[in-house]
Amino acid sequence: MKFDVITIFPKLFENFLNESLLARAQRKKLIKFGVHDLRKWTTDNHKTVDDRPYGGGVGMVLKVEPILKAVVSIKGSVVRSKRKQRVVLLSAKGKTFTQKDARRLAKYDQLVFVCGRYEGVDERVVKYIADEEISIGNYVLFGGEIPAMVVIEAVSRLIPGVVQKEESIINESFSDKEAQVKEHAQYTRPETIIINGKKRSVPRVLLSGNHAKIKEWRRGDK
């Protein structure tokens, strides 16, 4: 899978994409990343990417023109007939991202993320350029870069081979309406430790060596 990110702060992604499992997945050629500076698609000497909103109001709005040029360029760099592509705008007013969305997006060959900033983006990006608008929660951040990282990580771990050990993948149960994610409690050494004057120990079942019982415990069938 190829992830492309359009942002005005490309350096924010340097450490994120070059550490831990994402770095290893890139070395194994399971995923590829492209981080693109939106200013590359501006035409003026000041590399202007934003402007004042029509009708008045506070703040600045990301312009539609450079975003359009960036998306067209990035999508056009591959043979479209051979790839399933999707453009995702990260925005505070988008639909809330869930594990179900991660599974859906993992089926694409290329995801292009547009990171919003300032007071948002020109609405024509929402209506005519992006395929969907996603939020990671009911709160407002400075921009869409961190939300893009969240979505990238959630989707990447669903690509075969990125997470090596099957037992490290969280259990997912799906209701009719949406995905619900459950993760069992984890313990490691030492077996016993004193916290606030009280002895706190690992549950005995995890020390039993009885894998059937451990599995039941992890499912919640205690």
Helices, strands, pairings?
Elements: E1 2-7, H1 14-17, H2 20-27, E2 32-37, E3 50-51, E4 61-62, H3 64-76, E5 85-96, H4 99-105, E6 110-115, H5 123-128, E7 132-135, H6 145-156, E8 171-174, E9 179-182, E10 192-195, E11 198-201, H7 211-219
Parallel strand pairs: 1-2, 1-6, 5-6, 5-7
Antiparallel strand pairs: 3-4, 8-9, 10-11
Q: Summarize the biggest pleated sheet.
A: 5 strands, parallel
CATH superfamily of the largest domain, by name, is SPOUT methyltransferase, trefoil knot domain
Total individual domains: 2
Structural class, judged by helices and strands? alpha/beta
- In spatial order, strands of the major sheet run 2-1-6-5-7
Along the chain, the helix and strand elements come as EHHEEEHEHEHEHEEEEH
Task: Determine Rg (CA atoms, Å).
Answer: 22 Å
CATH topology term of the largest domain: Alpha/beta knot
| Contiguous runs where pLDDT drops below 50 for at least 5 residues | 173-177
Q: Measure the end-to-end span.
A: 40 Å
Relative helix content:
25-40%
Shape: elongated
The CATH architecture of the largest domain would be: 3-Layer(aba) Sandwich
Number of helices: 7
The amount of beta strand, in percent, is 15-25%
CATH class of the largest domain: Alpha Beta
The count of DSSP E runs of length 2 or more, i.e. the number of strands, is: 11
**Mean pLDDT over the residues:** 88
